[in-house]
Amino acid sequence: MQIVRTLFATLVFLTPSIAFAHGEDVLATLFAQGLAIVVSVVASFLLLRSRHRTWVGVAGCVVGVIGSWAMTGNMPYNDNRTLITVLDVALPLLGTFAAVFAARKLGNVKPRA
After folding, report:
1. Is 67 within 8 Å of 89 (Cβ atoms)?
2. Quick one: which of 5, 20, 52, 111 has the fewest CB in 10 Å?
3. Angle at the Cα of 62 (from 59 to 68), degrees rounded to 5?
């Protein structure tokens, strides 16, 4: 348990260094995306009965995060603050939902004889 506490404290301590000089506004977006990722992964592990679908949900979340970074990476933050925050929160959640939905639909297809 001490290792988890130390790791968490280190992560919280180093997070402001991601936002360079006077960039504390960026931290709200980073924490919102982090919360969306945690919600997606925890929901995948707690709500899905199949371990296969659980990992598909986690993979969908990863694809959503990569997609949000690709879409918002070159946008100026101050001009697009709301759009960047919405995309960084919505895409991991939508990626998880879409991946699990697709896995359920593809898993229910009966093979032809």
Report:
1. no
2. 111
3. 140
Q: Can you say whether the dihedral through the CA atoms of 10, 17, 78, 65 is positive or negative?
A: negative
CB burial of 54-63 (b: ≥16 within 10 Å; e: otherwise) equals bebbbbbbbb
Mean pLDDT of 71-96: 89
Q: What angle do CA 107, 50, 102 make, to 5 degrees?
A: 35
Can you give the pTM of this predicted structure?
A: 0.72
User: 90 burial class (0-12, 13-18, 19+ CB within 10 angstroms)?
Assistant: middle
Sign of CA dihedral 36, 74, 8, 55: positive
Place of tokens 């359920």: 104
Local confidence band at 14 (pLDDT 50, 70, 90 cut-offs)? low
Q: At what angle do helices 24-47 and 81-107 cross, to 10 degrees?
A: 10
Quick one: residue 40, left, alpha or beta (phi over 0 = left, psi -120 to 50 = alpha)? alpha
Distance (Å, rounded) from C-alpha 59 to C-alpha 62? 5
